[in-house]
Amino acid sequence: MTTKAIWKLYAEAIKHFIQSKVKDEAVTDDLLQDTFIKVHTKRESLNDESKLKSWVFSIARYTVYDYFRQNKLTIDIADNEFLAENNEDNEHTEKDCLRGIIKNLPKKYRTPLFLADIKGMKQADIATQLQLPLPTVKSQIQRARTLIAKGFMDCCGFKLNDEGYLVGELQEKADCKVCAH
Tens-of-pLDDT digits for all 181 residues of the chain? Predict the structure, then answer.
């Protein structure tokens, strides 16, 4: 199959994939072009035609990773909507506490946790994007989750039950060590 035929089959889907990652039309077009240059130059490395689609998407995925690595792009979650939401009424919710606890996490824990648990990224992809070893990312996410549980115990007097789940009732907002500030 020619590069032109591969383009006709997959260019639109690859463009949507890239755009979902970089959120910039000009960068998307550049990365799409880079992807298909690699498809053209590495075409002979594909041994099984039935795996063409996954092969092209893999090239696109690694092209996006390379872009993030080369530009040393990081995700600053301090401005994220999840963290920036304010509770309009004066009701005190678990989300208020969670938002405050996450804001207070050290950035080295907060960023991987956000990417994994809120953005839904795979840990291997997070490791690639943050340029960290996978075991480091895994331990940072686990540590962040532990700190969140501890935050609920410190903030609102929650306890861990026998199964390891947080149980308890929220305190009044004025009594909450995280939300009252």
Answer: 888 999 999 999 999 999 888 888 898 999 999 999 999 988 888 888 888 988 898 899 888 887 877 766 544 443 344 444 444 445 667 777 787 888 888 989 989 988 888 778 899 999 998 889 999 999 999 999 899 888 888 777 777 778 777 777 766 766 676 665 5
Match 């938002």 to its residue by tokens: 99
Which of 70, 104, 124 is at the close of a domain?
70
Residue 119 in any domain: the answer is yes
Range of the domain at 145: 77-175
How far is it, in rounded angstroms, from Cα 86 to Cα 79?
Answer: 13
Phi, psi for 13 (deg, rounded to 5): -65, -40
Number of domain units in the chain? 2
pTM attached to this predicted model: 0.49
